[in-house]
Amino acid sequence: MGQRLTRGDVEKIEQEIEHRKVELRPQLTKAVAEAAAQGDRSENFEYYAAKKENNHNNSRIRYLENVLRTAVIVDDAAAGEVGVDMDVTVYMEDDDEEDTYTLVTPIRADSLHNIVSIESPIGRALLHHHVGDEVTVQANANYSYKLKITKIEPSKRAGELDISKF
After folding, report:
1. How many CA atoms, within 13 angstroms, populate the side-chain half-sphere of residue 25?
2. Burial class (CB within 10 angstroms; exposed 0-12, middle 13-18, buried 19+) of 89
3. Which parts of 66-119 are beta strand (E)?
4. Rounded to an integer, what distance in angstroms lies between the CA atom of residue 60 and that of residue 80?
5. 140-157: pLDDT as tens digits
6. Do residues 82 and 149 make contact, with C-beta atoms less than 8 angstroms apart?
7. How far from chain centre, in Å, is Cα 19?
8. Which of 28, 65, 109, 133 is a Cys-bridge partner for 117, taking CB atoms 3.0 to 4.6 Å apart?
9. Would you call 113 exposed, middle or buried from its count of C-beta atoms within 10 A (0-12, 13-18, 19+)?
10. Rounded CA gap, 102 and 160, in Å?
11. What are phi and psi of 78, to 5 degrees?
12. What tens digit of pLDDT does each residue of 80-117 get?
């Protein structure tokens, strides 16, 4: 099974592929040719740097094309239900704290900023639940905790998040 993506993710990936093929690839190919023309390649740092950048660009294109080829499109959640690109506010009774998470597809997750994947323990626990539901997050085999959903709303920031750069 491939990456789970939204239609917005697919559009962003297609745009990045287009940019890399149409704009970057010709520039990088030209830089490699110019550096190679400088003579001895054994000590030509510019040649190796240009070649490395060109290879990185081609590798990223192949990676993104493979992601699209194997992708599984995630549909929107029903009204009032936790789904992708939603901000979910939860109450943690153990800590007596409230926190808000943005649920996204794995390719856009950033857990340091509470942008969690729908495949993470928190994301799996919250997905398809409603305001008022209490869910159990299974962090690992020995530890779990409870969250109570207090608010669900469409995320304002989720659509602006970049596709991860690996």
Report:
1. 12
2. middle
3. 72-73, 86-92, 97-104, 115-117
4. 37
5. 999 999 999 999 999 888
6. yes
7. 18
8. 109
9. exposed
10. 12
11. -65, 160
12. 899 999 999 999 988 899 999 999 998 888 889 999 99
Half-sphere exposure of residue 109, counting CA atoms within 13 Å on the CB side? Answer: 17
Torsion-angle region of residue 132: left (phi > 0), alpha (psi -120 to 50) or beta? Answer: left
- Choose between 76 and 87: higher pLDDT: 87
Query: Is the pLDDT reported for residue 42 higher than 80?
Result: no
Instruction: Quote the percentage of the chain above a pLDDT of 90.
Output: 61
CA 146 to chain centre: 26
Secondary structure (H, E, C), 119-133? CCHHHHHHCCCECCC
Q: Collapsing DSSP states into helix, strand and coil, what is residue 52?
A: helix
pLDDT at residue 166 in the model: 53
SS3 content of the chain, % helix, strand, coil (to 5): 45, 25, 30
Q: Residue 20 has which token pair?
A: 């890399």
Closest CA to 68 of 21, 2, 163, 161: 2
